[in-house]
Amino acid sequence: MKSAPKKKALKSKKPAEARPAKPISECMRCGTCCKKGGPSFHHADKTLIKEGVIHAKYLYTIRKGELAYDNVKQCLEPVSSDIIKLKGKNKSLTCIFFNEPQSACTIYENRPIECRTLKCWDTKALEDLYAKKRLTRKDLISEIEGLWDLIKDHQERCNYKTILKLVDAINSNMKDNGRQKLNEIIQFDTEIRKLVVSTAGLDVDMLDFLFGRPLTETIQKLGLKVQQKGRKNIFLQASRGDHPKS
Asked: CA triplet 145, 149, 152: central angle to 5 degrees?
């Protein structure tokens, strides 16, 4: 009877060396950047809005003094001037002009300068552009008589420097005075929006561009929630997790 053949000794093999990933040097059309918030507008983009290529109803304004997320510094801080941005779809961060099924920009040939500048593999050029020569509401509508006066009055009466002080007073338990004044400011912000729609016939979708986002929404970044009961606003402290990023 023949003996079973001897098994050959297995030689240990060195683990395969991982091949370095090929560096990205061109847009892969993954759509990631289009889902992280619309671009801000600069003076180079003025004609896009002036000539109606991008309608103002697709824009919103972060007003001077408002808390906003700085993508370069990666923190929330008050902005030094207007920042005009593209809206997101259904209040999400995804750009309103992004076609998700096709992973494509529907205004690609007329996209803003930040979109033209962004290279996801090298963001330096965008970081250099980021805070320079930003477009403001004054650049776009100061020549519209009457409307610009309304916007200036709203900015003065609803300025965030005052709002920040009132919120601090509320959080410091100086309740009655701070709450009453903040209530008046938010009520004015609410009523001026209704007024321009009912009397001037402006498209309701234009309001976030003309007057910024409603104070009833942006106040959450300052640690308060607003509940409305009739014409009265009730202020509640928000939890940290309620603070939006953008």
From this structure: 140
